Amino acid sequence: MKKPFVMGILLALGVMGGMSQVYAADQVKSLRGASDLDAPSNKVVIKKIQQGREPIERDYVQQPPLIPHKIAGYKINLKVNKCLTCHSWANYKEAGATKISQTHFSDREMSVHANVAARRYFCTQCHVPQADTKPLVENTFQPVETIRR
Amino acid sequence: MSKINTILEKLKQPSAASLGSLLIGGFVAGVIFWGGFNTAMEATNTESFCISCHEMRVNVYEEYKDTIHYSNRTGVRATCPDCHVPKEWVHKIVRKIQASNELIHKALGSIDTPEKFEAKRLKLAQNVWRTMKKTDSRECRNCHDFESMDYTSQQRRAMKRHSKGFDEGKTCIDCHKGIAHSLPVMYEVDPSSVVGDGK
User: Fold this and answer.
1) Is the ipTM of this structure higher than 0.90?
2) Which of A3, A57, A89, A100 has its CA 20 to 30 A from that of A121?
């Protein structure tokens, strides 16, 4: 009869230990604010994506250029890439768009292909549209003078 | 004999009353038939009729619900026949007769699974694109009249391309493909917009 009792105490201690970890997790805060799973989420602020504007200057070398227009409804899947219907080398002139960089034709072995490489196909992995919002975290970033004055 | 003769005589010279009843009866029957015909045709010209077939409901209608012609800031929306059936009577009848082909394929089950639909998507899309091109995007222009388009209130990209496109005599469908439904594998149409061969 003694063994189950000892086990019970050990279990209880274990649970309490676990709970203290839960309390510790309480200190961690998400940037979008904490809310319980069963509670309604915080009020969603709809951020307005900027409408079409001139190309946006880069802030650092190798920055993927930002998307200066809305891309709502633009599909990128195996069947078609909506971005490339304007930005591919075959289409950019007629569309008056920026063409994709030559780097986008190389695979990871750096062999150059005739068409966009699979690893560069999903544009929005690097290129993003812009919304007028406050930065989530304050920062003092300045572009270097060789890029932009 | 004389009885038969009188009946024959009467048939040769029908009274004014019988002529009148024929005329009125014919008129009434005509109105009912014509009205019934148009009512039945209008019934086939509704979105609920289109999506009563699962081929339309689970494929093209589902995709359509994600697009601007279904849901947008002003709440003005287009239904299937607004784009796919001409408004003018003669063109409408022609399209309705063509639709008998769609009934045959419904019976054959040509596109009765999403996989079968996907396999046919390029061909089906090209059929619609070809028709739109031929009619100078007539169904688009029921709502979108470029005489009434104000370029200055359009976005930068739209302004540039609309004025250029119209100068070159292009029609809506030349650029606006896949705006209401998912595009097919575009490899054959524009290989530069697909990775690999799109399969």
Assistant:
1) no
2) A57
CB B94 within 8 A of CB B87: no
Choices 1.10.1130.10, 1.10.287.470, 3.40.1170.20, 3.30.70.20: CATH for A57-149: 1.10.1130.10
A99 to each of A58, A66, A110, how far by Cα in Å? Answer: 16, 13, 20
Chain A residues within an 8 Å CB radius of B185: 78-80
Q: Give me the residue spans of the domains in chain B.
A: 22-144, 145-177
Q: CB-based burial of residue A9 (10 Å sphere; 0-12 exposed, 13-18 middle, 19+ buried)?
A: exposed
CB nearest A80 (choices: B67, B164, B194): B194
Q: Residue B13 contacts by C-beta under 8 Å, 6 or more apart in sequence?
A: none
Q: What is the DSSP string of B120-176?
A: HHHHHHHHHHHHHHHTTSHHHHTT--GGG--GGGS-HHHHHHHHHHHHTT--HHHH-
CB pairs under 8 A between A and B: 75
Q: What was the pLDDT predicted at A135?
A: 85
pTM for the model stands at: 0.79
- pLDDT tens digits, one per residue of B90-137: 999 999 999 999 999 999 999 999 999 999 999 999 999 999 999 999
Q: Is B142 on the interface with A (CB under 8 A)?
A: no
Q: For the domain covering B22-144, report its CATH number.
A: 1.10.3820
pLDDT in tens, B138-156: 999 999 988 898 989 898 8
B173 and B132 in contact (C-beta within 8 Å)?
Answer: yes
